[in-house]
Fold each of these.
Amino acid sequence: MSHLALGAGGEFDAIRRLTALWGEQAQGIGDDAAVLTVPPGRSLVVSTDVSVEEVHFRRAWLTPEEIGWRATAAALSDLAAMGAEPLGVLWAGVIPDAWRDALDGLALGVGAATRHAGAAVVGGDLSRGVALSLGLTVLGAAARPLTRAGAKPGDVVWVTGRFGGPARALAAWEHGGRPTDDDRARFARPVPRIAQGLAAAAAGATAAIDVSDGLAQDAGHLAAASGVRIELRLDDLPLVPGGEPLAAAAGGEEYELVLTAPVSVDLAAALPPGVPVTRVGRVGMGHGVVTSLGDRVVEVVPGHDHFSRP
Amino acid sequence: MSHLALGAGGEFDAIRRLTALWGEQAQGIGDDAAVLTVPPGRSLVVSTDVSVEEVHFRRAWLTPEEIGWRATAAALSDLAAMGAEPLGVLWAGVIPDAWRDALDGLALGVGAATRHAGAAVVGGDLSRGVALSLGLTVLGAAARPLTRAGAKPGDVVWVTGRFGGPARALAAWEHGGRPTDDDRARFARPVPRIAQGLAAAAAGATAAIDVSDGLAQDAGHLAAASGVRIELRLDDLPLVPGGEPLAAAAGGEEYELVLTAPVSVDLAAALPPGVPVTRVGRVGMGHGVVTSLGDRVVEVVPGHDHFSRP
């Protein structure tokens, strides 16, 4: 909105400035709460996600715009995995004094990722604090939300995209090096697979999850929720150039989708072009995830679990 | 939900435990996003609010349950101010190692405030971090949301509750003392005025805001949004025993409602009994807030603005 009617005060000055920065990407900010319309016949789909400095990223790795984009894209990726169309984004920012000058950059990143997904920033909250954190809540609508719980024995397992970039970028930084531009971009500017999730739900996919913790680990959540076994053939996993299948199946932060669908549904044909859609396995009876490479069963060492005790 | 189907990992163990703690108060947790139904003919009303240790509270002041309750109640208060019925709550928690043992207490507080408002915990996210923060997103539904923008010259200004307790509790703590039990409870266990907001909207109130920053400051937001002047007679402001009107009009954290309504609408009769509903002023032409005491115009020194530069 072009005019924001708030009283005086530092927090309100900041909110006014961010709302001006967002321009048409901000809607209805300035009341106690945002008001949205969920289209008739659709369910509301909602998720919240928090990105914390020194836990999810380091300041030296990313620009403020990238930090804002990444946090927002990570949250929107949950809507993609539900086959939901994004409606709005709320940003709760804890902004330390040392990050004050980066506030506009963070906000531009939040706004850009929101715009890219076809949604609007509809609300938020700002607070001081000692460490930067970005809490993103995303709202979407779906006629038939795609859950983790619908995979059936006999279904095919598909993934979007190419794996291995973000983990390699992280490894480079953590060893004091610099990632390649491509790996860095995969970490810094993930693109939530919104169109893919919507098309998969429409085409008859039975379950989906996005890869935030690592392909094998997230496939494990899908297997648990569906009461099935997921069998992944890592030979078929699409990789970034030079990628290594075991590392790619363990690495988090991909924000690609794992989808299951009946054998009769060709998701590669049903999903929009431009992003690879690849068969990587099947759904069996049982539980857990079995990963194979060549003719051997291999163990994928679990990825990222930022809430584990150190 | 009684059974939560997630894979292995420390974060998931914590989520499982909290979901068990919440019992019937948790619904649908365990997928990428929560799915809710907004009743036909109602708008979705949504707000997000972040509470940060050392900014909004200190650990020594409150129990973990109170911290969880307070953060959730503060967020739900925004739904009350919109005349919305709560549907669901999402909690994004940043939990430092030093707070690990308090996690269950925090979650019980979040769950209790959610239950008190008739809603369910529908999702969340947990992360490590160096300072505790609780991001609460609240979802509600309203047939006709009550905004800040509808006050008209000639309307009467009403408030719920009695003012002055939370500011006096804060002052006691900040001077190294202990607040009275009543003042402490007003700070630690605010009750969002959900039923009052719903009844006010149904009775024909024209605008509302909740008092988080201070009566005078929040009335200023309502005045700015409505394009009117708010005239408050502090002689009429209901106070906690021993309360002082100027301090009570400046103090934040009240989570009471300021409501405007046409002269013909008696909000004291329309709102549920048990909480005082008091005429404290009128809406005039112009802008800003004018506060008077006796026959003098007095200045209310602005309350709490935690995002101001120190």
Note: The two ends of chain B are 45 Å apart (CA to CA).
Amino acid sequence: MKIIMDERGKKYLIAKPQDFHSDLGIIKEEQIANASFGDTLITHLNKEFKVIKPNINDFIDLMDRRCSILIQKDIGTVIAKTGIGNSSKILDAGTGAGAIALNFGNIVGPEGHVYSYEIREDFAKIAKSNIESFGLNNIITVKNKDIKKGIDENNLDLVFLDLIKPYEIFEEVYDSLATGGYLAIYAPYIDQVETSYKIAKKLGFKDLAIVETLEREMEVRQQGTRPKTRMVGHSGYLLFGRKL
Amino acid sequence: MKIIMDERGKKYLIAKPQDFHSDLGIIKEEQIANASFGDTLITHLNKEFKVIKPNINDFIDLMDRRCSILIQKDIGTVIAKTGIGNSSKILDAGTGAGAIALNFGNIVGPEGHVYSYEIREDFAKIAKSNIESFGLNNIITVKNKDIKKGIDENNLDLVFLDLIKPYEIFEEVYDSLATGGYLAIYAPYIDQVETSYKIAKKLGFKDLAIVETLEREMEVRQQGTRPKTRMVGHSGYLLFGRKL
Amino acid sequence: MKIIMDERGKKYLIAKPQDFHSDLGIIKEEQIANASFGDTLITHLNKEFKVIKPNINDFIDLMDRRCSILIQKDIGTVIAKTGIGNSSKILDAGTGAGAIALNFGNIVGPEGHVYSYEIREDFAKIAKSNIESFGLNNIITVKNKDIKKGIDENNLDLVFLDLIKPYEIFEEVYDSLATGGYLAIYAPYIDQVETSYKIAKKLGFKDLAIVETLEREMEVRQQGTRPKTRMVGHSGYLLFGRKL
Amino acid sequence: MKIIMDERGKKYLIAKPQDFHSDLGIIKEEQIANASFGDTLITHLNKEFKVIKPNINDFIDLMDRRCSILIQKDIGTVIAKTGIGNSSKILDAGTGAGAIALNFGNIVGPEGHVYSYEIREDFAKIAKSNIESFGLNNIITVKNKDIKKGIDENNLDLVFLDLIKPYEIFEEVYDSLATGGYLAIYAPYIDQVETSYKIAKKLGFKDLAIVETLEREMEVRQQGTRPKTRMVGHSGYLLFGRKL
């Protein structure tokens, strides 16, 4: 898979070699097949496209995504707080278009695995297709299954839940985790994390923490430097608990 | 390597099997050698210790660290924004006690690599020892070298700099990156990121952004739920740029 | 002066009694003249308008304002930090449409006074007209004058500056303040407050502080309670210094 | 009333002329009685004290306060959002040591009035004494009374509540407000503002908003400029509603 970028910075995902058509002209299948990352391709209208090695973010930006996606800052916090990495075993629910599973799959590598539960068949289908396009189908298993019906895996390093009532399955989550493993939930409403906190505490999860991350950009202009006027005020809360 | 945790939640790093002595009693070398993650070990004073699979954060908390360490929220932001993962090739400078390199090494896996430059010999030594203890010495190469003297690697996916004047080597960084690769710097002072921004822009880095992350915890108490009174107001700014 | 509000919540400023025309019908001059706060007025189309005692914010929302206006949160911080109140003597520059002067005038009362310097004649004119409409012309004196040419007043409790290079007149500001009086500046760019801080320090101002205020709203919905997705990321920095 | 400040910046409140004793020496009653704001007084040990006109914040910092005090940033937000000023009529409960009442009294002036309800006799006594010391006893009336027993005033511009269950008296508050008047509550816990919001909405309050204010300081050092490491993460939420 490649990404090609035109002179305006617009990016296109090229899943497999085939003729590429755009308002800046045509690039032949052959050109694309032979291109290496960093190369420049010329259209029949003499316009330049740069060939880029797609990273996970490029891919998620361009993939088919019909449902909302956890924002980067929250994914970063989950990765950093839970210490997941190469060879980790992770479960996530619900899959949605697969963005979270892709982020995890990108990190755990071939020695790890991601199990992703999605109750809706249409979402599971989109997610599978996206995951295959990015080449992580050996690492991520999408299950079109209601996680409330039970968790098949055990000895997990992380269970990540983006569900309306995540606390309904905390008992099963606890059993499925390795000692030292993490529960992480993402929830936009305070009532969700409040209830989750109380139930997780009762079930024996340790190191419980509810965290909210705010991200602000700075802009460097001719007149001076200042934080940007607009920022995201809230995406969701993250709750972490650990089986110890 | 194992971590054992006593009944108070205090954790100890066990680099290799040997008799373990604490105020709660002794655990024999043999017990430790035979223990699996999740087991409970009993001291001669009949106190329990839980055996935990150490993740990268447990290890960094307990390892030898004589210099300040980038906080988790910033590491998370770097990982999330740059999309690094399995098989990424990363350079970081300066190494310090190795915390950042360990975080990156934990993610890139055996197919990736981390090159970590540290000018001070004492720090480089500590870092090497820490990295070996965590078992990532095949993945992370610590170089006791001034990065201003030149970058040996190329085709890198990420160059991460935690230096006083990072912008002095942006030209070399640009050359060392793969197309699509990222420059990321961490700097506590606004003047540092301002200058870095201007120089990175002049050198042709794209998608430039300066980001600051604030993290706030919520507490769930008997009386109600509320954000914690105390929070970290600032650690540092992160600047990102991309070679496209 | 009165404010009348229709059934949709839309507000209208009534500077003096005269027939009022709107899409919801006509209210006669006589009705308006005789109305007390809290009364309901009926249009010839049988629509209701509520008569409201205008506070300073209602007025500023509805008055003629052709230039940008300091946002409420920053005005609140200035009032709270400097402890101004009844009988305070305040200077502000530049006036703009008069919003800041009106806020100060609303607080100092007839025993206090606000002197407001504005270099542009058109702004000074608008400001004067606004101030007269709100009935504070005995309390606020607008001067169409470049403050760099000198400050006429002394023994001031607060000098508030919203200028591009406020530090150019800090020496005159110092002389014009009472012992215990405050300098306060509002500036969007960090370079402005940085330079201001250094110069104010050199000139002997005490209790120097640069403050930034973030305001976030919470929303209470059917599904739960959460911070609003959108918030203002930055308006400006406030610098405070005191003559002691 | 005067404030005198020694060479180290330490401030002392002088309620009435009498000999002043400190580790830097004695100042005679006579010296104090004759001093004007801005004067310098010399102790018998030849140390200098500066005479300062106390503003409301100086006074509150130095007065007797045995209970916690709303922080400045929140007071500023209340003043700014409700547009109170000269001649406003305000009710606040509970009084505590009188800090909020003093802030309001400082603003409304002799044409306005503040009614402050405090259920505890000891607090009411302290508050009265503080208010008299600052000379606002003609403007602020402290009532040692449980506000749940009823509100005596009407036509109020603002009712400010710092109570555990403020919503218990929202109906009485509504009746006591002028058309256009504001309800404002301060509450540290989210459950308090959530319940308050729902009840206020049911009772017909308009322009409902829950606001949280974060304040961060910047520091200008030799090495550069940056936000301070430590900040207050939370004081309380403010809820505003208006009778329209």
Note: Chain D has a mean pLDDT of 92.
